[in-house]
Amino acid sequence: MSYVLAVWPQDILQPWPADRDMAQSQLEQAQAAAPPTTHDPRLLAFAHALDARFPSQGDEDDVYDNLPPDPNRDAPEGWLNIGLYDSAERDAAYAHAVVQANDQGLNLFDPQSGDVFLANGVALGLDSPSQCLRAVDAWHRRDLALARAEYRRVAAGRDDQALQGWGLLLGKGQGGPRNHSLGAALMQLGGADADEDPKGYGLALQRLTPSLQQEQARQHEVLQAAADLLAAVDTEIALQETLLQDALRDITNPRLRKQAALVLIRIANNGHAAAAYRLSLEVAFGKSIAGAQDDADHWLRLAARWGDPAAQVSLARQLMKGLNPALDEAEKWLLQAQASGVRGQESLLADLRTKRDELAALPGRAESGEAAAQRQLAQQLMDPTDPTDPQRVAQGMAWLQRAAEQGDAAAAAELGHALAFGRPGVAPDPLAARPWLDQAVQGGSAHGQAALAQLLAVPGATQSDAARALELAIESAANRSGNGLFLLATFLHAGVGGSRDVVAAKAVMHLAQVVGGELVRQHPDIWPQYQPTPDEHLPVQILRNQINDNLRGMPELLARRGETPAASG
Q1: Is 320 found in the same domain as 238?
Q2: What is the span of the domain harbouring residue 72?
Q3: Residue range 46-51: average pLDDT?
Q4: Which residue has the higher pLDDT, 494 or 56?
Q5: Is there a single domain that holds both residue 349 and residue 231?
Q6: What's the rounded mean pLDDT across residues 55-81?
Q7: What three-state secondary structure class fits 9?
Q8: Which of 101, 233, 382, 555 is the right S-S partner for 396, CB 3.0 to 4.6 Å?
Q9: Helix, strand or coil for residue 82?
Q10: Could you tell me if residue 562 is inside a domain?
């Protein structure tokens, strides 16, 4: 035992101690006084509160010593000594002891440091005793909202520890919304040093972009000069909200869009959850910010992690999709959104649990001979978004073949595509692929039509048949296959299997970009050459709308264009 703390009730006949010596004198008087006839309930409640937080096990892992007094065994005393072991929990135990003592109306004296923590909230000492032990206690108990509120309360007096603690929680978004620059400014105001505190202030500075570094400097000056620090912080937070609302309004205005986008990016970088979610939508669907889907996903994940309920629901929906949906993570986000008070997640949670049950039953259904289950299991094993090992790929190919042998056209298409073009763990074998692709085409598989079209379009190959490749691409595109639309656009642009039709190629490629697909994702660099020239813009737009309104009628529409010499552009 390396620490002893003494607690005693304030004598109502004596004034509150004005300094450490006066407090120690009152403690000594309490210790010298005749013991009471009964146990003081405040001392008992204090001891039991400590034991409830760190229960005694009677071994070397104990945090406190001499807890709690036994009224049936121990003689009543007007004060209490507790021992504090030198354990990993000592800081938490120390703060908790101070808080519990004061909450019970007891004073606490630390003879080692000379600090005294009075029940009226005043801390006395030879140097500067911590004013933040309530915040520290709340932080150790993971009540971050209370810790943040306590740091804020004490920071009103510009206490350095409180300023740094408040700034740290504000910058990390713990116990409430985050604000990277303002959190760093508060820590700087409290005298934080990145070299001395690399995991706190050092990381806080690393979160700041160059524009946010300028914002931190401005905010630090504002806080330094503020007569009312809390009001100044609240004003800065409100200012960011106003700027965000202005940016969201202006981003729909073509004339103001560029500047609004810069503001949105800066506020999102500053840790604003709703701004990060809106930024993810702008990157994915808007006109103001260029970026790839990975960028949109990055901001969506940040927004969800920072606590935006709409982002959490959107991310959960994404995670529920795909061949190997991340259902456990999706459920976590849905439950967090629900805990935030967002309603309407019950149906999504029900869908998620149904999907989980279906996936759990999939191997059994496949083993029983169900072709659709065999195909789904194969797709899981061979999911290209997951790292695949040779054994999983071999198992997947075997399940595809079993499903295809039962006449499953989609399985035949998957199997034929893998054999035709290869994939990790599967060497290309076009001759072996052809029967499976023929079967898929006969079964009406749009994926099979596109795969066979791609195979037959290879110049100089044994199976090359450009005319048939064009027919299959048209059929696949008419079935709204993204791969089919992509291939058809490239065939029309190059004149594969028929006459060249640049206008039709550009119209079809626009639709391919909308529908998406594996080939679209694999060839992002091809898009610029399919942008219409000023002279082509109107005819491309008209044809694109005609095709989109009636995809099934596209073969006849393209056939009529092929009969018109001017159609080739």
Answers
A1: no
A2: 3-129
A3: 90
A4: 494
A5: no
A6: 76
A7: strand
A8: 382
A9: strand
A10: yes
